[in-house]
Amino acid sequence: MVSFSLQIFFLIGILFYFAAIFYLLKSKVLNLKYALMWLFSGAIMAVIVVFPIILKKFSVLVGISTPSNALFAAIIFFILLILMSLTSIISGLNEKNNKLTQSLGLLEKRVRELEKEL
């Protein structure tokens, strides 16, 4: 399977990953509701590193011949999940931006009409 030194190396990498996420959360660069997907994917990575047998059983269950291919498939799945999450967030922000722009336009029109009356 995976050598012990490689597991330690991956665990240290995952710790740096979590440290970066928590630093971004602490410095208010990243909101918690947007960071949950990143924290979830980090937790899954940690579980796979600590218990590599899970990856082997997953690959057998899905019918993938080698665990490394199953790992790549899982990584692609998580990347797609994060991309869909970010796309939905951006779509919501775009809609809010459009509504704010329309409201601002209506307010400016009203201010111009009130200034003409005075």
What would your notes on this structure say?
The mean pLDDT is 90. By secondary structure, this protein is mainly alpha-helical. It has one domain. Helices cover 88% and strands 0% of the residues. α2 (32-50) runs antiparallel to α4 (67-117) and α3 (52-62) crosses α4. It is built from 4 helices and no strands.
User: Total number of β-strand segments?
Assistant: 0
Oligomer type? single chain
Shape: elongated
Give the strand content: under 5%
Task: Describe the sheet with the most strands.
Answer: none
The helix/strand series, from N terminus to C terminus, equals: HHHH
Total DSSP helices: 4
Radius of gyration computed on alpha carbons: 23 Å
Mean of residue pLDDT?
90
Structural class by SSE content? mainly alpha
N-C termini distance: 81 Å
Low-confidence stretches: none
Number of domains: 1
Helix content: over 70%
List keywords for this structure.
118 residues; 4 helices
Short description:
By secondary structure, the chain is mainly alpha-helical. The protein contains four helices and no strands. Helix 1 (4-26) runs antiparallel to helix 2 and helix 2 packs across helix 3.
Topology:
Elements: H1 4-26, H2 32-50, H3 52-62, H4 67-117
Helix pairs in contact: 1-2, 2-3, 2-4, 3-4
